[in-house]
Amino acid sequence: SSPITVVPRLFVRISHEVISNARSIVFFLAMIGPCVATAQFTPIIRFASLPAEVKKEISASGIPESAWSVAIIPLPPVVVMGPVLNGLGLNPDTPVNPASVMKLVTTRAALGLLGPQFRHQTRIATTGRLESGVLRGDLFFQGGGDPKLVVEDLDEIAKRLKAMGIERIEGNLVVDGTRFDEPEIDPGQFDGRPFSTYNVGPHAAMVNFKSVKVSVWSEAGKRVRVMTEPRFRDQELSQKIQLIDGGCNKSRVTARMEQAAKGAEPKLLVSGVIGKQCNGVDFYVSVMDHARFAMTAFRAAWEAVGGVMKVKLQTGVTPDSARTLVQWESPRPLIELVADINKLSNNPMTRQLFLTLSAGEGRPATRQESRLAVKAYLASRGLVFPELVIDNGSGLSREERISAKSLARLLADGLIGPDAQTWVETLPAVGIEGTVRNRMRNSVLEGRAWLKTGTLDDVRALAGYIRSAEGRWVVFVAVVNDPQAVKAKPAMDSLVKWAYTYH
């Protein structure tokens, strides 16, 4: 049952921004339609100042109070929508960059708009013909925006194709990412780290987070071996790794795409040094564009089941005349994807899900329409946040803004309805899992707080729920925007412990 019993009011406040242009009115109505039946006001929240003992902890961080935005709201056992809730705050109305805490906005809207059991679809289709085990013609890999289409899924798809009698595929492999009408981003634009997996941008046909697992180890300290997942063929790999004395602490290995000679295919170059006494190192790297990576991963899965593939890569639209070979439904419902996003703070998954919010039949997704979808959903819940700025929905942005008060209202609203406990558990439990597994471990907070982290240069954030010593639910938000934000962690943890003890 829900941690909070609620008496709802059926009323919707619509922000001027959401319906300010005619093009968006139909889209807005389509978005809020499923929500109107449960729409309600969240309570008015009045904030008192944080007590002196808490401000002392903040002062000890060396970060000025002006850089903090805090909202702590103890909730009564029964909430009737409409009355005032009393909270404690520090600059709660100040718009701040929340970093990855913005994922709470995206995932909460996604659950409201799509439903916890929503499943993404990926289609494999063809306009070719099958003759004597050979499929000749165009094979279409039509992406459905799945945030977690992984190599295990491709293995199953390959098995289904093989079971149809296909042994060899010849022609064009057309990767169709047109469900999203967004250009592929420059992955190095945000922070100059183009191979970092957290910088992977969205694509409707994203496979395996566009990330390669690279494993490097030595055999008896004499020979270096390299393996990748998805598997790169021998002709797609090159290595320049030197064995040196020492263990894994001496190992330094990187990977990047090697510049290819004219007319040749590029190779994945794995280079560096590895200690002779090191059992091996694993790391992840993002290489290639989405279409080429999808082909590489799909071919690896196909060859693993004994298939042969001789194709040319193309991108384009799947024609209406294409025949479906495999309609793959994700084995993971949305609620599971949301838990992955919130517990592990996965940026590529969030950006995929954010765009999915505005994708529909004959209507490719755009960031602008997804922003409107999120704000329309929030408005349907009585959550109008004038200061809210959504860029890509993941928090990997210098533009996104929200106040601690608005985040607190969103979190309080999350405790309304039969899915409340399930929603809380999509956040990582302190001291146990995800991005807070090593935080406040072996303390009274372990397993009694569910908190989403946010980290960027100059930003630290923590937001979620605490089950207090008295058994009450406490909504907690703390965000710091400051060049010295890295120093905020001890003070934030002290705030969490204080909220647990005194409420």
Strand adjacency order, main sheet:
2-5-3-20-19-18
Main beta-sheet annotation: 6 strands, mixed
Rg on CA atoms, Å: 25 Å
| Class from helix and strand fractions | alpha/beta
Portion in strands: 25-35%
Give the beta-strand count: 20
Distance between the amino and carboxyl termini: 22 Å
Q: Quick check: average pLDDT?
A: 90
Which term fits the overall shape?
globular
Helix content: 10-25%
Count of separate DSSP helical elements: 11
Low-confidence region ranges: 1-39
Present the secondary structure layout.
Blueprint: E1 5-7, H1 22-32, E2 44-49, H2 52-60, E3 68-74, E4 78-80, E5 84-90, H3 103-114, E6 121-126, E7 129-131, E8 134-142, H4 151-163, E9 168-176, E10 212-219, E11 223-229, E12 237-244, E13 252-258, E14 267-275, E15 281-285, H5 290-304, E16 308-315, E17 323-329, H6 334-344, H7 347-356, H8 367-380, H9 404-413, H10 420-424, E18 449-456, E19 459-467, E20 473-481, H11 489-501
Parallel strand pairs: 1-4, 2-5, 8-9, 9-16, 12-14
Antiparallel strand pairs: 3-5, 3-20, 6-8, 6-17, 7-8, 10-11, 10-15, 13-14, 18-19, 19-20
Helix pairs in contact: 1-8, 2-11, 3-6, 3-8, 4-5
